[in-house]
Amino acid sequence: MADTPEPPDIEETLLGGPLRYTRKEVAERSGISDENARRIWQALGFPAPPDDEVAFTDGDVAALREIKGLLGHALVDEEMVLRLSRAVGQTMGRLASWLGDVWLQTFSDQLPPDEPLNTEAVIAALQATEELRPAFERLLMHGWRRQLSAAGMRAAASTATATADPAAGVARLAAGFADIVSFTRMSRQMEGKELADFVERFETTVTGIVAEEGGRVVKTLGDEVMFVAEEPAAAAEIGLRVAEFSEQDSDFPRVRVGLAYGEVIFRLGDVFGTPVNLAARLTSVAHPGTVLSDTGLASALPPAAYDVSSLRPRTLQGLGKVRIRVLRRHT
């Protein structure tokens, strides 16, 4: 009886080569200190392996050599490399998880109904992924270039109109949150795939509206989407369109939206500041299907386009008493 061939090693398949080096060996071969190599590895989101564990490939050596080359540039220092590593780790980690989930689900759907997704099937799916890897990598690089171009144009435009200081990471923007009402209760009543499809539809719809109105999604949190917009009117349109969609489509979850306008801080792709906190608090107190805003955003809107009404001041956690506005379209 012929021996059953050993299944391919998952790490070797996806990393493009076998594990060859310990942490100290990869540092020596790359020319970067062991301490810096460890900090970069942890910034990417991985625990530092034991000194004697063979855990790195030739690709890891090449990547660290690239980093060493970057450190020779006047605009790049060790802190920038660590920040970039954290951003890459968080962004690529989520992207890899998303792609893995979608890929395995697609592969599972192609199996016979009575055949489970076992180890052999997972390996086969990963091998298929490897066949498509070059095309995916080109797509990722193109997407990165487009996003980098857009970020550069935003920085140039904001500086020209004195609405931002890119060097300090400060800008005047509208921040908003769109949140699913009673998500915890609803999620308990759904099976895994049904819940995943539900969240996917919510995120797809909201992020599509944000893009159409010229805003930018900062992050998604399952039952919530955070976005920013340079113009208060664009943020108002995003909020109202999302709320209207939820009221008109019975299969779409009911949502509530909070908006605020003011000076925010950018850091590693995230946005911080009082307007962000205020928008989040307004979302938490909004009724289903409504859009609440702070005074700053409401006063910046063209009066002829929107109906703005006042609610009694309300104490919001960490912000004190806040004057709240309700946004509606003129009827």
State the main characteristics:
single chain; 331 residues; alpha+beta; Alpha-Beta Plaits; 2 domains; 9-stranded mixed sheet; 11 helices
Could you explain the architecture of this structure?
- The protein has 331 residues and is of the alpha+beta class.
- It folds into two domains: 10-152, no CATH class; 169-329, Alpha-Beta Plaits.
- 52% of the residues lie in helices and 19% in strands.
- The chain contains eleven helices and nine strands.
- It has helices spanning 10-15, 23-30, 34-43, 58-71, 78-109, 119-160, 183-188, 192-212, 232-248, 274-285, 295-299, and strands at 164-165, 170-180, 216-220, 224-229, 255-267, 270-272, 291-293, 306-316, 320-329.
- Strands 1, 2, 3, 4, 5, 6, 7, 8 and 9 form a nine-stranded mixed beta sheet that branches.
- Strand 1 and strand 2 form a beta hairpin.
- Helix 8 packs antiparallel against helix 9.
- It is globular and about 65 Å long.
**CATH homologous superfamily of the largest domain - what is it?**
Nucleotide cyclase, GGDEF domain
Instruction: Give the helix level as a range of percent.
Output: 40-55%
Provide the structure class: alpha+beta
List the total number of helices. 11
* Outline type: globular
For the secondary structure, the number of strands is 9
Which range does the strand content fall in?
15-25%
CATH topology of the largest domain: Alpha-Beta Plaits
CATH level 1 name of the largest domain: Alpha Beta
Rg calc: 24 Å
- Main beta sheet: strand number and arrangement? 9 strands, mixed
